[in-house]
Sequence to fold (357 residues):
Amino acid sequence: MKPVRARFAGSGIAVPTRVIDNPTLARVIETDDAWVRERSGVVERRYVEAGVASSDLGAEAARAALADAGMASDEIDYIVCATMTPDHFFPGCGTLLQQKLGMRPVPALDIRQQCAGFAYGLQMVDALIRSGIARNVLLVGTDVHTSLMPYSERTWAILEGRDPGPLPAEDYAWNSRFRHLLVLFGDGAGAMVFRASEADDGRGILGSRLYGDGNHREILTVPGLGSARRPFVTAEQIAAGETVPVMDGRKVFKLAVTLMPQVASELLAEHGFTLADLDLLVMHQANLRINEAAQKALGLPDAKVHNNIQKYGNTTSATLPLCFHEARLAGKAPEGALVEFAALGAGLHWGAVLLRL
Fold:
């Protein structure tokens, strides 16, 4: 019997229409375009309209991926959804995607590895299909970060063009307290569809190397909102900004530029490849400076790397599929290409996945 592999079938994305550029953010945060570009490479990001949830963007991306694969939703027999911003504390987004896509009841798995979520999802897809549990799997990465942003209604009115401003000094100072985070994040979703394939052509998900280490959990975390406190959330937590993520940017940078190249090289060697064999490296889009440093460490030319954080900011679980999809459209990932995904996120979680298209 030939080994079964998870073969890529199609991809799709969903990004909000509202574009928030750096000068617009500078109206509500103490920052400017040069400051943001220099530190992160972000030029603009997308924000959803009020009331649009992660499952809404995820379902839109899923429909696009299914269309790209030439598949109907009723052909999918397993859903895997990665997000750190679910519509509700529970249920997760998996069954919401199933319902919004008009699918029959199927297993729906929600995973929470934050910025490394889609990489973990790829490994899960590989395991589900290799084991025979599933034949056709839909993998979705979706995040609506605006749900976490501590903006007042007046701030939103200015960002959305409903109020000419200026913003009251108190609100401006509050927003500026979190500027190192708020300038980075945007909303978005991406999806990929995989089919079980018995073809002995070397195509499909070839393997993965993933890691988790709680010793680094404090560098990326949300202090409030959890069972470590009673009650789960309080008005005092919100007022103190403890429901907003905390990030030690320097430590994240140092770990990312070390661990992503390391695991990418390890995985290639494990499967008998070198960097010369690699056609495309898709890295998590957290910071353009991180990716530039990782690319330099690996010695990869620009033609073998794709970045789009400039347009979308950090969309967490959506960055890998969003970046991959746009790289495909740009001709960087044709059929037969050897593609590697690498990511690092809160947990600390990191790793790489290898795919032959």
Q: What stands out?
A: The first strand starts at residue 5 and ends at 14.
